[in-house]
UniProtKB/TrEMBL annotation:
Chain's role: Catalyzes the hydrolysis of acyl-CoAs into free fatty acids and coenzyme A (CoASH), regulating their respective intracellular levels. Has acyl-CoA thioesterase activity towards medium (C12) and long-chain (C18) fatty acyl-CoA substrates. Can also hydrolyze 3-hydroxyphenylacetyl-CoA and 3,4-dihydroxyphenylacetyl-CoA (in vitro). May play a role in controlling adaptive thermogenesis.
Keywords: Acetylation, Cytoplasm, Cytoskeleton, Hydrolase, Lipid metabolism, Mitochondrion, Nucleus
This protein's name: Acyl-coenzyme A thioesterase 13
InterPro entries in the cross-refs: ACOT13 (IPR039298), HotDog_dom_sf (IPR029069), PAAI_dom (IPR003736), Thioestr_dom (IPR006683)
UniProt cross-references to PANTHER family, sorted A to Z: ACYL-COENZYME A THIOESTERASE 13 (PTHR21660:SF1), THIOESTERASE SUPERFAMILY MEMBER-RELATED (PTHR21660)
Single GO molecular function: fatty acyl-CoA hydrolase activity
Length: 292
């Protein structure tokens, strides 16, 4: 794909992100200059809307630009650029680090250079440099690690829920993070999740432990490379649940699933459910999964 086509595609993606009304809208004054080979160069003139109370470029804006523009840069990498127009997966952030070196004031034109340092199968390592165009003074430098594992798990999750089986009872569960054999999810307890006493149903808890821990094992370093190719979460050999405290409608709970050990055919998993507001543990579970 030639560089002009790549730049045009990236501009369409950024414009869509800005116009949808989310936080990306703060980049509406950023102009994309060139794109290709895992690199994206952008420019902007600092305006009042980009500044802090001191009239300098806001640190939060800088971090936002680093996040979004480096995520766009990886889409232009030769290994993935052919799919740039087919609902590209920008991934989710694992880590962002920004060093603020010099201030920028209203009227300064700055250049933002985003580069893909390394692109693995599930992780992209990116770096970004902000400098003032007039004198090439570096304003900020940052690194960004981008993870596609969570996006892949969410696709599997959505498929499981939409196919109409028992997994559909978990449709209110949000997946927060995934990787290294661990999956963290959250949900707010609603009437549909409760028993006749109005507390979280034991069967729902057991279902969540079963399904979420089976998803967690898919993110283990030994098998994560195959996560997008018809992943096999295995079948249950044993599930044990200890119910420790009750949960009522309106409580927000966190479900933390971890792979304790992954053998050749057996995965040993542990799950903890706790209330987010006070960290009270609600239930603990263990799950042994047979992996074909």
């Amino acid at each position: 794909m030639n560089s002009n086509k790549v730049l045009e595609s990236i501009r369409k993606i950024l414009n869509f992100s800005i116009k949808r009304g989310g936080h990306d809208r703060v980049l509406e004054k950023v102009d994309l200059i060139s794109a290709g080979n895992g690199q994206l160069i952008a420019e902007m003139v600092v305006e009042k809307q980009h500044t802090n109370v001191l009239g300098n470029l806001h640190g939060g804006f800088t971090a936002t630009a680093l996040d979004i523009l480096s995520s766009m840069a990886v889409l232009t990498h030769p290994r993935v650029v052919e799919n740039i127009d087919s609902v590209p997966n920008r991934g989710v952030s694992v880590d962002i680090h920004v060093s603020y070196l010099n201030s920028a004031k209203i009227g300064d034109r700055i250049v933002i250079n985003s580069e893909t340092v390394k692109l693995g199968k599930n992780l992209a390592f990116l770096k970004v440099t902000f400098f003032r165009k007039d004198d090439n003074v570096i304003l900020a430098q940052g690194t960004h690690t981008n993870n596609k594992v969570l996006e892949s798990v969410r696709k599997i999750w959505n498929y499981s829920i939409k196919r109409g089986g028992h997994d559909r009872v978990l449709d209110k569960v949000d997946l927060i993070s995934a990787g290294n054999g661990q999956l963290i999810a959250e949900m707010v307890v609603e009437k549909q999740h409760t028993n006749v006493l109005g507390t979280l149903h034991g069967g729902f808890t057991a279902t969540a432990i079963d399904v979420l821990s089976s998803m967690a094992v898919l993110t283990h370093p030994r098998v994560v490379e195959d996560i997008d190719s018809a992943p096999n979460g295995g079948v249950s050999v044993d599930i044990h649940v200890s119910y420790l405290n009750s949960v009522k409608i309106g409580d927000r709970i966190v479900i933390n699933s971890e792979t304790v050990k992954l053998g050749r055919n057996l995965a040993f998993l542990e799950v903890t459910l706790f209330r987010r507001d006070d960290n009270v543990i609600l239930a603990r579970g263990s799950h042994t999964n047979f992996i074909k």
